[in-house]
Each structure stands twice: as structure tokens, then as C-alpha cells.
Automatic annotation (TrEMBL):
Places the protein is found: Nucleus
Organism: Riccia fluitans
Keywords (A to Z) from UniProt: Nucleus
Name of this chain's protein: YDG domain-containing protein
Highest classification ranks of the organism: Eukaryota, Viridiplantae, Streptophyta, Embryophyta, Marchantiophyta
YDG domain segment(s): 1-80
Domain of life of the native organism: Eukaryota
Gene3D superfamilies membership: SRA-YDG (2.30.280.10)
The keyword Nucleus is annotated on this UniProt entry: yes
Cellular component aspect of the GO annotation: nucleus
Main location as per UniProt: nucleus
Length: 83
């Protein structure tokens, strides 16, 4: 992957954190992931709200060149055999 050009000071590529490594492992081992989504409109309040979205399979992942750095993207698809 090519170098990110004209990178402003303070920007760096995303690191492969433990969470990203777990997602990569799930992709490699074909293990579905439970997805729980937070409501962004309520995240600043004391009473946070989360919604269980179901089981998702990671179809692919990549490290893409963004505007100022490289970022990981995970392409997930909800498993069909759920209610």
C-alpha cells in the first residue's frame, strides 16, 4: 500500500488494536460476531441506550488509504437465519 501523501502533523495510521485483531481472527476463522449498537443521540446522557442488532459475518476487511491516514474497514453482513 502506498504512502499517504501530505499527512498533517498528528495523523497516523490506525493501529491493529485488540478489537481489530479479534475481528480479523473472526474473519479468518469464519466466526460470526454479535453486533450491539449504541444510540449516538443518547451517548452524552447518563441513560445510554443500546440495541442488539444480531449476528453478523465479516465478508472482508481491508486497510484503506484515507484522506490523511490508513484506516481499517470491515464489511459485515447480517446472518439470514435470524428473526
Amino acid at each position: 500500500m502506498g504512502k499517504v501523501k501530505n499527512r498533517p502533523e498528528g495523523y497516523e495510521d490506525q493501529k491493529a488494536t485488540a478489537m481489530k485483531k479479534a475481528l480479523i481472527n473472526s474473519f479468518q476463522e469464519n466466526i460470526p460476531n454479535r453486533v450491539i449498537r449504541g444510540d449516538p443521540s443518547r451517548m452524552a446522557h447518563d441513560e445510554k441506550k443500546y440495541t442488539y442488532e444480531g449476528l453478523f459475518k465479516i465478508e472482508k476487511y481491508e486497510q484503506k488509504k484515507g484522506l490523511h491516514n490508513r484506516v481499517y474497514t470491515f464489511h459485515m453482513k447480517r446472518k439470514e437465519d435470524q428473526r
